[in-house]
Design goal:
Structural class: alpha/beta
Radius of gyration: 19 Å
Distance between the termini: 44 Å
Number of strands: 15
């Protein structure tokens, strides 16, 4: 099989099965695992898969920059945001992550909701300036322009001095085995710091993130209270997550 044919085979397998196991592909095609790994390296370099131990997973489409992400699945993000906003208790404190889904949550908070919002996103803070009853705490630090959030040592230290009832956290990848992932190591560390300061953490994930992975793990499934998604409850990945005991809050059409 020519290299181009192997490439097409791998991409078709990834689309059909949602993962690639290098040793299984090598046995199927009668080639070495090294050859499969080289093919996967090439595909990963083009942004067509996320390499993991033993093979590869679908790459998340949500790793593009903030401006580009605003055009990705806006309807799904609105549905997720509607459910997430309903979790914020009256008089309570919520840690709201950055990102386009979190921005939709900020806009979905009812005007009569008395709450405290802690965020490391200047965009989120700006969106809530006109909210009549939301008290705002903006965590400072180095601005990671790709996601329009602060991160780094100063931001993590600031996060360690707050606490909240709820953390609503965005990720770029949601996978039963890879866990909850994002594309930047410092951003992943900041998300962990935010989650650690809340009694409960729910993950915001529109359907295009389900079954995908990025390079850096944010949290294992044991570290969160549940997942809010508009993905079909019959989606094989969602079914697997339920089997793992993950609470799924479905944001249907």
């Amino acid at each position: 099989m020519l290299a181009a044919e192997r490439r097409d085979h791998l991409l078709a397998l990834l689309a059909r099965e949602g993962k690639i196991v290098a040793k299984d592909v090598a046995a199927e095609l009668g080639i070495s695992e090294d050859s499969v790994r080289r093919d996967l390296r090439d595909l990963a370099a083009e942004g067509l898969c996320q390499r993991v131990y033993g093979g590869a997973l679908p790459v998340s489409p949500a790793v593009v920059d903030y401006a580009a992400r605003q055009a990705v699945a806006p309807d799904g993000k609105q549905r997720v945001a509607s459910i997430a906003a309903g979790l914020v208790p009256p008089g309570g404190a919520v840690i709201l992550d950055g990102g386009t889904t979190a921005l939709a949550v900020a806009r979905a908070l009812p005007n009569d909701l008395d709450c405290t919002v802690v965020t490391h996103s200047p965009t989120i803070a700006a969106a809530l300036l006109d909210h009549p009853r939301a008290e705002l705490f903006l965590l400072g630090g180095r601005v990671f322009k790709h996601s329009a959030v602060t991160c780094g040592a100063a931001a993590v230290e600031a996060a360690q001095n707050v606490s909240a009832d709820l953390c609503l956290l965005g990720v770029t990848g949601v996978h039963p085995e890879a866990g909850l992932t994002t594309g930047d190591g410092e951003e992943a560390a900041m998300k962990r710091a935010l989650s650690a300061r809340a009694a409960e953490t729910y993950i915001l994930a529109s359907s295009e993130k389900i079954g995908t992975a990025s390079r850096f793990r944010v949290l294992p499934w044991e570290g969160v209270s549940g997942l809010i998604t508009d993905a079909d409850p019959r989606d094989p990945v969602v079914v697997r997550l339920k089997a793992l005991g993950v609470e799924i809050l479905t944001a249907g059409v």
